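Homework-ish question, so no full write-ups if that breaks the rules, but can someone show me the predicted structure for this set?
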Amino acid sequence: MESKNLVIIGLKGLPKIKKGDNIAKLVVDLIKSSKTTLESKDILVIAQSIVSKSIGRIRDLSEITPSGEAIELYQQIKAKAEKLGIPVKSPELIQAILDESKKIIKVEHVLIVETKNHGFICANAGIDQSNVEGQNIVTLLPEKPDHEAQKIRNELKELTNLEIAVIISDSFGRPFRIGSTGVAIGIAGMNPILDQRGFKDLYGYTLQTTIIGHADNLVSAAQIVMGESNEGIPVVIIRGYDYEIEENASIVPILREPNLDLFRSEE
Amino acid sequence: MESKNLVIIGLKGLPKIKKGDNIAKLVVDLIKSSKTTLESKDILVIAQSIVSKSIGRIRDLSEITPSGEAIELYQQIKAKAEKLGIPVKSPELIQAILDESKKIIKVEHVLIVETKNHGFICANAGIDQSNVEGQNIVTLLPEKPDHEAQKIRNELKELTNLEIAVIISDSFGRPFRIGSTGVAIGIAGMNPILDQRGFKDLYGYTLQTTIIGHADNLVSAAQIVMGESNEGIPVVIIRGYDYEIEENASIVPILREPNLDLFRSEE
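A: Not a homework solution, just the prediction itself:
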């Protein structure tokens, strides 16, 4: 029997990341001091939280003065959250979310928005209160995640002379199904989608509509190892996936255009 | 450096599956004749297509007479699909979709429905025309995917005396983002969601809302190896994920209740 293997390596032992840290260098140093190696065409999946910390995309909620809109939204959200027994966010957090948003998509026990900088549809504009030091400190999504991914890819190439694709990862909730799953928010070195229209299936028939969100599948795979609580594994190497190298990659092709989206019913 | 590894092994060489085939036995025979092993707490991800074929959940579109409703829906879908330059389904396929559906959620260039047997929200009721023999033959989702997963898990236990979790996999499109990603449609031996509310994060703070859709993440990981065209890898072993064994697992906990779903705006 032939078999085709993929290996997912979670890197433990990275120091806690702070503003100004060079993630590529820290990863390469960590790998050098270990039995793990980095190989050409490995994919490095890096948690948004450490990328945001390295570039200072954090905010102190205690320094925010909520606007009238934020306070009003807070009241609506609080009422809905309390009915479900879900912890209630603060007006300061709502303000931080509004500051990162282009458009409010749904007001429920969370705020579903379209992010200002990227056009992602997600809860709370991707603002995260977990895995960041300080009770009032939150991480914001990087303003230009593709740029951060490309920067790390370039630095890795300089340091190791290897061809490494880089994906910045997050986990989003989704409609219809409970539980967060992996999402790519920035990418370098590979296209986020794999268009198989025109390929043949196992019986020789031509695939009509198959487009695979392979960057999100890769992040989901990484997140099995990363976890979301105290695992301390913000960087994962994926080895064995034969992707095509794409020099000018961007996360944009994975975002549906609003007019083609079946589920956007903006309020 | 400590590292935490996950290995994903795609099994090649399984015969083309037909009605009555025992998938557990075929997998065990294949593994016995190879250098791969099966280990306790491995997770077996099995493509829906072969499970459906093994239990005869296929339909011949040429034997279907579309109802008036199917013909009318076909006209609507055809008009929308043609605008987007997307291939148009037949009235017979629309009828097959209606026969598998409880409710139509959206009529677009595809039909988004809630499936009759499970309550999944997906395009075309999960009916698939690829990777099945015969131009007019489609596979339908298993009526009871949890039952099929449990049956395979039990048979594997009998054949190998090992504790193997089984996930039946499919790939669904999703709102907001382009490209299909992995979805679990049936499960045995583990819970499809991982509830981490109350867990501590890396900085000692308690997670408030973290629920992970780990079954879908596992399927997404498997699909990187499976692919969707002519890879011929319908079974994947995932090794190294430390899950809790759950004897009475079901896919139901991963489905949002309609009244808690932020994105159900039924037509």
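Now go work out the reasoning yourself. Hint: The mean pLDDT of chain B is 90.
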